[in-house]
């Protein structure tokens, strides 16, 4: 290493001897060059500022468009509220419409809107009856206007606020005017909100006449199928609509945004003066020519507008020109500094030579450090050039492939690749060099490697590329993943075996549940006979025959008692076994993912009352009060499974309570329905709370085990609650009682 450093230092000294004194005019050349660079820098900064200003101009346009679109969308939603209000009632009268609009607070909530109206279709034969009905409401001068015979009339009957301007539209037949009719027909045939073209509103009675437009939303007859255009035309009854005065509308939407950007709105797809709907210049007058201009096509509610934007003088004043002058001042100052720097450059030459020597030494040390890292890294690293010849082969690669470095360096990298990839690899590399297509370069993927002994093996290959002195270099990093692949195969086999075992278990439980329940049902059908044999006709005849024979009756009585005892025990044990079979089947369905819930909106308090009624006799037999409370909230659940959950929890509470009461409470907490089942029983030890929901587990005490049970009820309960998207937890205190708390999503949340 020392000799290599000395060699590089001699090369630097040789170059330094070739250094010539700078000519006397060189500093002046640097000064001129600096001033020229300053000029181009100023020009570049100026262009950058223009680009930034244009971006801000486009951002202003985006904000304008977003504000207009959002406000029009809000108006459409307001009209939809009106349609819903009309559809919710058999007939909406004038006062109801007025109250509805006042509650919407139209002028406050929707600034820029002229009114909120309801226009109905009137057939020619209905005009007289329609006119008399409206006049009877207190409008003796009402008539549909303009006069004239038409195939169909429309009439504005409600328009709020019913001020001086809007009264001019009362009774107006919008269907009689072509622009309005086109929008109404489009809304009718599509069932969607539709804007009209540029119109002059009949409300224009004083002050400046503004361009206007109207937004329509159709209302159809209820309970009538609406599938085709013809269906809609037959079912149409009218429109909820809103008139707009464009200057008022835009003022409400844009506020003072026009200080920076002028906006002209043209109806249609062409910028024609006759189609001008809005001109912000009428509000903010700007006489200077705009620095930036842009036209944007805008479409909403079936109508096209051209939004023509131009910057204002106020916008131009916001352009920051300080950077341009900073570059000028800085450039001149820097040029002068550089002028002085060149004068002192020769004096610093020797120092630069020494610095170059030190840098050369550091570079050589860095190269050796890099070589040491490559030699000790655990991953195999191989480099090659564009000609596919191997340039380096680290020790980890030697160990992985079985070759020594000098055996492969200078040879084609295909040496390490098996067929069919061996013959295709050169084409892959050529295609990458020509097109930049990346199959492995710049990424990582699993490939097959070929050892020296001819054995193939899986490896993970990551390839990067770099350039050194304009020569492309490919660097491959490889990891032998043989063990990982073997582990993956073993895991897949284990997974398949587990799935097969789970399927076999489910099939076994299904078969066993059928095979066991069928005979068990038969047995349970006869146990009442054993428990009460005297109810049998044959037994009654036997008693009649031996009646009067006291000795025989005395001997027969013990036999009868034994029969009743056996019948009772068989009935109890059979029902316990049937419960266990049903629990096992439920648990199997849940674990196999075959439990399907019939979710519907239910009254929580009604379900609780039903369960309490079913268990009331059981509670009364123990002298326990069964109490429920809470608000009537709607839940989204399977009624049968929810009852199963409550029967398990309330039944357990009754079972483990010797005196006191069992309480069920329902409440709504953060849009989640919470059920609380509390008892005054013996309680559960804190160290055994985690066992409560385990399968075939009961709290380990002799008193608890005497209560019976399958050990599956709470496990199934927990899984059913989780299937509903809820959770369950326990609060318990020894000798005080336990509370089981579970949640079910509310119908509103769903």
Structural features, described:
There is one protein chain. This protein has 750 residues and is an alpha+beta fold. It has five domains: 1-22 and 345-373; 24-342, Beta-Lactamase; 377-480, Beta-Lactamase (2-Layer Sandwich), CATH 3.30.450.20; 486-589; 596-745, Histidine kinase-like ATPase, C-terminal domain (Heat Shock Protein 90, 2-Layer Sandwich). Helices cover 49% and strands 20% of the residues. It is built from 22 helices and 21 strands. A hairpin with an 8-residue loop joins strand 6 (261-267) and strand 7 (276-279). 23% of the residues are buried. Residues 17-21 and 700-705 have low confidence and may be disordered.
Give a quick summary of the entry.
The chain is an alpha+beta fold and 750 residues long.
């Amino acid at each position: 290493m020392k000799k290599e450093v000395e060699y590089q230092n001699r090369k630097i000294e040789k170059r330094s001897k070739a250094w010539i004194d700078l000519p006397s005019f060189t500093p002046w050349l640097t000064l001129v060059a600096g001033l020229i660079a300053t000029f181009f820098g100023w020009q570049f900064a100026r262009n950058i500022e223009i680009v930034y200003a244009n971006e801000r101009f486009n951002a202003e346009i985006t904000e304008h468009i977003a504000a207009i679109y959002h406000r029009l969308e809000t108006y459409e939603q307001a009209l939809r509220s009106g349609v819903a209000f009309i559809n919710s009632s058999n007939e909406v009268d004038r006062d109801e419409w007025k109250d509805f609009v006042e509650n919407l607070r139209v002028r406050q909530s929707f600034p820029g809107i002229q009114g909120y109206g309801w226009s109905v279709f009137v057939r020619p034969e209905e005009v007289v009856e329609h006119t008399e009905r409206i006049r009877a409401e207190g409008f003796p001068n009402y008539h549909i206007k303009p006069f004239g015979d038409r195939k169909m009339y429309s009439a504005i009957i409600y328009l709020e606020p019913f001020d001086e301007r809007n009264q001019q539209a009362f009774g107006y037949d919008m269907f009689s005017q072509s622009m309005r009719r086109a929008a109404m027909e489009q809304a009718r045939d599509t069932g969607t909100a539709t804007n009209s073209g540029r119109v002059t509103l009949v409300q224009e009675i004083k002050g400046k006449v503004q361009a206007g437009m109207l937004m329509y939303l159709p209302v159809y007859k209820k309970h009538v199928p609406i599938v085709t255009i013809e269906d809609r035309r037959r079912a149409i009854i009218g429109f909820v609509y809103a008139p707009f005065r464009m200057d008022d509308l835009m003022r409400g939407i844009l506020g003072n945004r026009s200080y920076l950007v002028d906006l002209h709105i043209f109806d249609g797809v062409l910028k024609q003066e006759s189609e001008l709907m809005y001109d912000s210049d009428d509000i903010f007058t700007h006489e200077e020519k705009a620095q930036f201009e842009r036209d944007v096509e805008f479409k909403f509610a079936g109508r096209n507008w051209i939004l023509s934007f131009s910057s204002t003088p106020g916008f131009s004043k916001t352009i920051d020109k300080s950077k341009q002058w900073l570059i000028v001042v800085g450039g001149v100052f820097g040029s002068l500094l550089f002028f002085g720097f060149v004068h002192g450059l020769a004096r610093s030459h020797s120092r630069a030579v020494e610095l170059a020597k030190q840098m050369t030494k550091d570079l050589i040390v860095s190269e050796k450090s890099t070589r040491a890292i490559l030699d000790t890294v655990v991953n195999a690293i191989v480099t090659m050039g564009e000609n596919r010849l191997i340039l380096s082969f680290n020790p980890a690669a030697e160990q992985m492939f079985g070759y020594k470095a000098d055996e492969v360096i200078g040879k084609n990298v295909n040496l390490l690749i098996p067929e069919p990839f061996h013959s295709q690899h050169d084409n892959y590399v050529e295609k990458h060099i020509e097109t930049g297509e990346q199959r492995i370069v710049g990424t990582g993927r699993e490939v097959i490697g070929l050892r020296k002994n001819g054995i193939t093996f899986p490896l993970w290959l990551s390839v990067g590329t770099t350039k050194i002195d304009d020569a492309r270099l490919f660097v491959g990093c490889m990891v032998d993943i043989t063990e990982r692949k073997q582990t993956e195969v073993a895991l897949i086999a284990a997974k398949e075996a587990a799935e097969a075992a789970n399927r076999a278990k489910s099939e076994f439980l299904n078969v066993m549940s059928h095979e066991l329940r069928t005979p068990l049902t038969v047995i349970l059908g006869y146990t009442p006979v054993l428990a009460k044999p005297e109810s049998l006709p044959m037994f009654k005849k036997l008693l009649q025959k031996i009646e009067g024979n006291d000795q025989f009756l005395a001997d027969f009585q013990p036999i009868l008692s034994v029969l009743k005892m056996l019948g009772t025990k068989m009935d109890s044990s059979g029902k316990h076994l049937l419960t266990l079979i049903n629990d096992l089947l439920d648990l199997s369905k849940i674990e196999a993912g075959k439990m399907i819930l019939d979710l519907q909106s239910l009254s929580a308090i009604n379900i609780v009352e039903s369960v309490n009624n079913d268990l009331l006799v059981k509670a009364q037999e123990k002298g326990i009060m069964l109490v429920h409370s809470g608000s009537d909230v709607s839940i989204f659940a399977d009624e049968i499974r929810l009852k199963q959950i409550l029967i398990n929890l309330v039944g357990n509470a009754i079972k483990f309570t010797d005196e006191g009461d069992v309480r069920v409470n329902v409440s709504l907490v953060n849009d989640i329905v919470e059920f609380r089942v509390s008892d005054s029983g013996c309680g559960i030890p804190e160290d055994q709370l985690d066992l409560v929901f385990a399968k075939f587990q009961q709290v380990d005490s002799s008193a608890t085990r005497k209560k019976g049970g399958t050990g599956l009820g709470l496990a199934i309960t927990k899984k059913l609650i989780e299937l509903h998207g809820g959770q369950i937890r326990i609060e318990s205190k020894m000798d005080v009682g336990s509370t089981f708390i579970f949640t079910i999503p509310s119908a509103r949340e769903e």
